[in-house]
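Researcher: Final request for today, and then I'll write up notes for the group meeting. The sequence and the SMILES for magnesium ion follow.
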Amino acid sequence: MKRIAIDMDEVIADFNSKHLRLFNRDYNENITIEDLRETRLRLLRPHLTSEIINYLNDPTFFRDLDVMEDSQEVIQELSKHYEIFITTAAMEHPSSFNAKYEWLKEHFGFLNEMNFVFCGNKSIIHADYLIDDNARHFEGFGGQGILFTAPHNLVETRYVRVNNWKEVKNYFIM
Ligand SMILES: [Mg+2]
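Model: Predicted protein-magnesium ion complex:
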């Protein structure tokens, strides 16, 4: 079986919605997903960079993110034909480990937990495909990078792009 490695945040876990909701609540703002086109929240409000990043150091932040639409159904289907690994750069926020693990067990419990990979540099990942919203992870990756559309990556043109999980399904044609 060929291997597909899949990122978590902004690919199977809806990171932006919760981050924006908390930020807007705490700073009395009304920033939307559309405002994040080709940028990041911390770049829009540079004077609040550390506060913006600090949300992610809350050990519970990643526990109740919404699941990205269709990701469960498509990954379940893909898992019949491919070996699936979930590869998250969790080292960026080590306090997220437990929440991310519990979230995966709750929403992707049909996957083998031995295939959950909490890593730093993803170039260590040996897979045929990597589905990720961060193009930087494709640079040292030996397989095919598949860029999952997120507001910040809309100008990236170097990689195969998928806009949602229906397009992932079509890419792998099952
Ligand atoms: Mg991501």
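Model: The chain has six helices and eight strands. The mean pLDDT is 96.
Researcher: Thanks, that's everything.
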